[in-house]
Design goal:
globular, 238 residues, Rossmann fold, seven-stranded mixed sheet
Length: 238
């Protein structure tokens, strides 16, 4: 079975390191929040990773769930999910978020820490909305402090306003939201032995080419200090 190393983008709780424990906790807390705000019925978990979040939903909120379709574009992650987080209510599938298709509509679609990776996040939201029942819920999250500078896999930096605007334009209204805070130690980031795999390697060069991102980072440090913030929202299809 593929063991998959933990990285900025994927965590496998079976081989979690000390430095990844806080990140895993904040991921699990997002799923617990999503579970509390599910529209009961059929659920889709888009970009499910190795499946620990889908499994949490099925075990902790099973009374609200008829089925979960959990999809991820990475075959290795789905292999781990099927072997480690198997549950009678979960069906794991390999699928890209933008190409996700289902013959049946869902009561709730969850996609956590996905939208910032997409070239056209608005297209994704509109596409996903076609798979939701009327008054179905879309539960999503993004970083709202700068992340593109440190994480080369992130294609958009969001604010609370720009994130919410995407859903409003796609025909959703907000029902609930929360902000998660994750302090970090800059000394740990500078330590090659403890930094998570995938961090941007030549940050000074990136800032030289993208000075607006440098000033966005300075503004974030002045406002929030050494702390990443994430917005998790529950939207309803109008």
């Amino acid at each position: 079975m593929n063991k998959m190393e933990n990285s900025l983008e994927r965590i496998n709780p079976q081989i979690i390191s000390h430095t990844d424990k806080d990140t895993l906790k904040i991921h699990l807390d997002r799923y617990k929040y999503a579970g509390l705000h599910l529209a009961p019925g059929h659920i889709a978990d888009i970009a499910c990773g190795v499946g620990y979040g889908s499994y949490l939903l099925a075990t902790d909120f099973g009374e609200k769930i008829q089925s979960i379709k959990a999809v991820d574009s990475d075959p290795g992650s789905i292999e781990i999910a099927k072997a480690t987080y198997n549950h009678s209510k979960i069906n794991y599938e390999i699928s890209d978020a933008l190409n996700f298709q289902s013959q049946n509509l869902f009561n709730t679609i969850i996609s956590l820490e996905t939208i910032e990776h997409l070239q056209n996040p608005g297209d994704f939201i509109r596409h996903i909305s076609t798979h939701l029942l009327q008054k179905g819920r879309f539960i999503a999250s993004v970083p709202i402090t700068p992340s593109m500078d440190a994480n080369p896999f992130h294609l958009t930096d969001f604010t609370k306003k720009t994130f919410r605007s995407l859903f409003e334009k796609a025909g959703f209204k907000e029902l609930h939201s929360c902000i998660q805070k994750q302090p970090y130690d800059p000394g740990t980031i500078a330590n090659k032995k403890t930094v998570r795999k995938g961090l941007r390697k030549n940050l000074p060069l990136y800032y030289a080419k993208n000075p607006s991102k440098f000033f966005a980072r300075l503004k974030s440090l002045w406002k929030d200090g050494f702390c990443n913030k994430y917005l998790v929202c529950v939207f309803e299809k109008i």
